[in-house]
Each structure stands twice: as structure tokens, then as C-alpha cells.
Amino acid sequence: MLFLRPRRPLLALWFREPVGRSLFGAVALGFVGVVVLLQPTLQPEQWLGAVAGLGSGIVASLAYINVRELGRLGEPEARTVLWFSLITSLLGLPWALSSGTLHGPSPEGAAILLGVGVFGGCAQLAMTRAYRYGKTVVAANLSYSTVIFSSLFGVALWGEALPPSSLIAIAIIIASGVMVSVASRKPAPAMDAD
Fold first, then answer.
1. Which DSSP letter does residue 144 get?
2. Considering only CA atoms, which of 121, 108, 135 is closest in space to residue 8?
3. Quick one: pLDDT at residue 168?
4. 84 vs 60: CA distance, rounded Å
5. Quick one: average pLDDT of 159-165?
6. Which of 12, 85, 116, 158 has CA 20 to 30 A from 65's CA?
7. Per-position b or e across 72-111, b if 16+ CB within 10 A of its CB
8. Residue 5 has pLDDT above 60, yes or no
9. Confidence band, pLDDT 50/70/90 cuts, at residue 186
10. Residue 72 has pLDDT above 90, yes or no
């Protein structure tokens, strides 16, 4: 599955933040790395899902911008995460009920669900803090690393083998993260000579 993350262009359009070529190029390079790593294919019957995925990426961009602004206004991370989780759960409830086969999880499934909830909640708190205090473009670009970790977990847990193109893609994504971090740094103020 492929997600577009057009956060930086939205920042440039709405908040008039400067988008340098080096930043834009580094983010685009990371996107290329994700495409090479995932090697997505799209069949004719999958266009609706692809469009929905792109729409989801745009909505996520808006959500992350709002998370950043809430943090800068002093809203606590825990409250932001609580409301985000509550609203998305309520919005997802109709789809869960429409399946027609509701049943409780097995003990093993409940343990997995609890683990996903705890680690997901901690990750959401960390991401909210990163958008509040960090640079938005760096936090957004570093989210490309999730596909690296997913691939490495596949190798470690399920014995998957990564082709050489995947190793190149991982290097591209890491290089993109480094380039965005370097390009987004503000130059240090010049020291007055005595």
C-alpha cells in the first residue's frame, strides 16, 4: 500500500512556509525509496482503493498540521491523542457493525490487541510531541522509515528475504531522512568578533 504525504506543500500554501528545492527534493527522494521498496502494483479494479488511499494521505496531512497547531497553542499531547482516538473509533464503528459477525477476541487475540493499543498509543503520543516541538517536514519525512521497520520485522519474524533492490531502497530512504534533517537546519547566527 502506498501513501502520499503532501504535508510540506500544504505548509507552503497555507502557512507560507518556504519550501526550498533541497527540502522538496529530499522528500521526493524518500518517496521514490518507498516506491522502490514496496514495489506497488495497481490493477484496474483497484483504482477506487488507490484513490481512497491518496485521499487518506491528504486528510492525514491536514490532521498532522492541526496536531502541530494544537501543540503550538499549548494543548497537551495526551488530550489530543485521546480525542483523536475517540473520534476515529466512533467513525470506524459503523464499518465494524456492518460486518454482521461481532465476537470477542480469543485470549491470544486480546493480548495482541492490547499490545497494539499500548504501543500504538505511545507512538501516537511521541508523534504528537514531535509535531509540536520539532520541525514538521523532518517528522513527516522520518515517517517513511516505517516501511523500513516493517520490512526488517518481516525478515526477523517471518524469515522473508529482501531482494537487492530493497536494500538500495532502504539506503535511499535513510539518505532522504538525513538530507531533510540537514536541509531543514537553520544556519547558526554569526558570532560577533571582538
1. T
2. 135
3. 94
4. 12
5. 91
6. 116
7. eeeeebeebbeebeeeeeeeeeeeeeeeeeeeeeeeeeee
8. no
9. low
10. no
Burial class of residue 7, CB neighbours in 10 A (0-12, 13-18, 19+): buried
Give the CA angle between residues 25, 30, 34 to the nearest 5°.
145
CA atoms of 131 and 129, how far apart (whole Å): 5
Amino acid letter, residue 70: L
Alpha-helical (H) ranges within 39-160 are 47-72, 77-98, 107-133, 136-142, 145-158
Give me the pLDDT at residue 21, please.
Answer: 78
The sign of the torsion formed by the CA atoms of 110, 112, 118, 124 equals: negative
All three cell numbers of 30 = 524518500
Say if CB 43 and CB 190 are below 8 A apart.
no
Could you tell me which residues come within 8 angstroms of residue 87 by beta carbon, excluding any fewer than 6 positions away?
none
Residues 71 and 81: beta-carbon distance below 8 Å: no
